[in-house]
Amino acid sequence: MLSANGLIKRYGDIAALDGFDLRVEAGEIAGLVGHNGAGKTTFFDIAAGLIRPDAGDVAITGEVGMAPQQLALYPSVTVRETLRLFGGLAGLRGRALTAAIDATAEELALTGVLDRRVGVLSGGQQRRTQAAAALLPRPGVLLLDEPTAGADPETRAALLAAVRRRADDGATVVYCTHYLPELAELRATVAVARDGRVIARGTGADLLKGLPGEVRVVLDDDEITITTADPTAALADLLRDLDRPVRGIDIRQPSLDDLYRELSHAA
Ligand SMILES: Nc1ncnc2c1ncn2[C@@H]1O[C@H](COP(=O)(O)OP(=O)(O)OP(=O)(O)O)[C@@H](O)[C@H]1O
């Protein structure tokens, strides 16, 4: 469990966090989204104990594992040595450590590069190594800051599956991303940050309720477009009353992108 209450962090005139509240339960993945500068990284640094807030506190059950946005790896050591270091810091030794390294490398598709130096890996492999370092000790709380940035589709899928498994095993996960479809894939709840606060919190479905989607019906010489919160129902109504042949149908359900846009533009 993680519970941040009333966090405030100022840098001169800038309030990086300005009353930031967030509660995430064990087994939950909370997707933290928001503009550049909304305060996501500052929140992570405070939750991980790297910096102190000016006010407020974060309560955490268990250890914290963090994969920061900036790669923080030693280029001259191998992937295996990297994982050995992070596992060792978390108290893993001997056979337990070796088994954890093998299992984590396997789930993040790093087995083939375990004995290569981090500095010669591709960007995606380095990012997976960083995620592996955070995931390996199986911390109770995982803070992941855009771990799939620059990842190819296979890497992305492996990472998302590994994160989902950790939550299924009971970890509390906060997952920062600018790529909203990932949150649906992770079955994450959503927290939208803006100007140092969480301004919307809930399941994707809750937050999307009432936002407009669109249904477009293409006829022989005409086209009908309806903007509505329930495009499927609008389509059913339309088709019931329509006496002309339909050439094409296009439905766009409201998405997290719509929510993000709406909240970002709200005063
Ligand atoms: N050490 C610092 N000194 C001065 N200002 C800072 C410092 N760290 C963060 N800030 C400012 O605080 C605000 C929040 O920054 P933060 O990095 O937390 O945002 P973010 O939501 O993580 O952004 P991004 O999506 O770009 O990663 C920004 O305006 C940033 O410039």
Automatic annotation (TrEMBL):
Subcellular location field: Cell membrane
Keywords assigned: Antibiotic resistance, ATP-binding, Nucleotide-binding, Transport
Biological processes per GO annotation: response to antibiotic
Keyword presence, Endoplasmic reticulum: no
Domain spans labelled ABC transporter: 2-220
InterPro entries: AAA+_ATPase, ABC_transporter-like_ATP-bd, ABC_transporter_ATP-binding, P-loop_NTPase
Membrane topology: Peripheral membrane protein
Protein name in UniProt: ABC transporter ATP-binding protein
Species for this entry: Nonomuraea zeae
